[in-house]
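Let us begin with a simple case.
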Amino acid sequence: MFIFLGLLLFGLFYILKFQKFVLFIGLFFFALGLGILRYGIKDARETALEGQIGSKIVVSGTIIEEPDEKENYTRLILETDKAETKILLTGRRYPIFHYGDKVEVSGILRKPEKFSDFDWPAYLAKDDIYFEMIYPQTKLLQGKGGSRLRRQLFSIKEKFIDNLSKVIPEPDAGYLAGLTIGGKKAMSKDLQEEFRRTGIIHVVVLSGYNVTIIANVIMQALKGLPFFVGIGFGILGILFFALMAGASATVVRASIMAGFALLARATGRVYQITIALLVAGFLMILHNPKILRFDTSFQLSFLATLALIYFSPSVEKKLSFIPKKFHLREIAGATISTQIFVFPFLLYKMGMFSVVSLPVNLLVLFFVPITMFFGFLAGGLGFISGFLAVPFGWIAYAFSSYELWVVTLFSKLPFAAFNISIPFWLTLFIYIGYAVLLFKLNKDKKYALDKK
């Protein structure tokens, strides 16, 4: 219906020479119709397992993603052999399974259920997961299946995390694993809660910030090679890193944008970050339209990036009292702008307001690149010699200890965070206000440039 309405408005615009706003309305309805059609195609499913809900079944399949290891349990995503259906398995920590293992499971098949205010079934549905088993009996049939490349990358990742744990004690080793390479066994539940209460959980979730650091390191290391060779290796490095980190929505978006940046440098064109952001989002939503609605990390990542593009420069100008040395003003501007921009969405989605978020971010973010650098050196040199990794591990440990100390100190304050939620209509109203403000800021900036 929306596609037909859009085409009708296009026709009225060209035949009857209507105003341009009719063309834009037609384009909106046409795009909306295509989006609904794509969502319907993605959501369409038919499987023989639908009739076995609540029954005990025995099924074999392959683990198609990196195991998500928690403190007391492990989550595995199984793709069945016959029905080619995904099942989420929640089981014991041991025995340990790996990506590519072919296993046989026996348990009660069930549909995911909502808990509290979180729509767990919808969150899983974005990855085409409609069934789960809780603590099934799992038996290994055959190892080393799946993609050979992904299996090797996950193996390198596990070894890297193991290298860190050999030279750095917990919880710092887990924190560095999450910070540098997105280790899913990264931090304890209590430590994660402290990061949430202080509004700095984004530090241990791989983002454009982390991926940009990786790209720059690769480019610097390949400076002596021909320019296009360096660009090629840079893009390959980003691709491998994204796969090894698990290819989450945030990492994929950041990797696409970083790849565009490298290509822009290779062709000598100006890198338009806004276009790159929109193209990255379009490609990801085209591939899986459900992430636009159900993937909170994807939504937060885009909001934070928009804040950095449009809001941060204006905020930075207001911080003239902060010195530029060591990029302090830049870090403060980026931190304040992203915190303001994602704040309403966080209240709507998570219902937790961190009073200490801003000071904690300012105290920690400046040291994060240094911590990542020495963490990478410690984990990387561990492949060669544990002895070589020790001094760099100590340096990384010193910085990580400071960051964890700040997080723990502020999280224990009685007023650090409190629960509060806002309805969707109010969230939408606030972002409309943000859009008006950004439009005014850009208009004033353009007017100032025209006067010059």
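The second case is a distinct protein. As before, the sequence precedes its structure tokens.
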Amino acid sequence: MPREKQLKIKDPYKGNELIIKMVPIENLEVISHQRKPSQYHVKHLINSMERIGFLVPVIVVSTKEKDKYMIIDGQHRFLAAKELGIRELPVIQVPERLAQLMMNFNIEKELNIREKAYVALAVYREYLQERPEMIESDPELVDSIEQAYYVTLGIAYEKAEKLSGSSFESILKKCDFFLDLKLPEALEVRQKRAEKVLIANSLVRDIAQKIKEMGKWHPYLYAQIISWANPYKRKRLPTEFDDLFDEIINNLQKAAEDPNMILSEVIEEEGFEI
């Protein structure tokens, strides 16, 4: 059997070795935590390929299975090629050690916070499985995930898909950071933090529903309720997660018993028309 033709080059900035070659399409698979593909985008690519061909290689890393590769950039091009019946694709194989650092490159449009959280949690769990002795604040993991609170939200979203994660993001930025703990211990902390986010979220939904039943509603009501409950909304310095969320939950519990106590600040003082 003839040896597979390939070309080795180095990237012009970091000097990483890149391998360019053709690979049978059945030997390619999409990374497990890739975002759900857009069928509109796939159709658009099919139309483009029918006019000008398949010109942009997909980016891959090798897998443990011989001659198999994982796509880390190019999911939509791969799916379009499959629909067109293309039998092999041009690929650029990058070093395996770069796979996690390139997670952002397999995103062809901006993710919303739920999608970012799911991707971050999937990457986190891969590190946990493969390198459980790693400290959560290790620069490699930090570069792969970007924000520690994405992991906390990922755990929370798994339990409550309708979580209003974006409403909590400004608070989480001030209190949920990477931990100097080994990943198994850090995950336990994140699970407890996710529970507190879920409790707060449930209370916010309860308060919002009561306000709605009173005939007072506004699209930004969730965010305004959270802002009202946040005791440190004007504090710029980082604060402790548990201290902050315990106070937020306590304030929300009071408001859940009597929503009138926040109506003037949340609605009237913000200038909302009810």
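The beta strands are 6-10, 17-24, 28-30, 58-62, 69-73, 88-93. The mean pLDDT is 85.
Keep these points in mind for the review questions at the end of the chapter.
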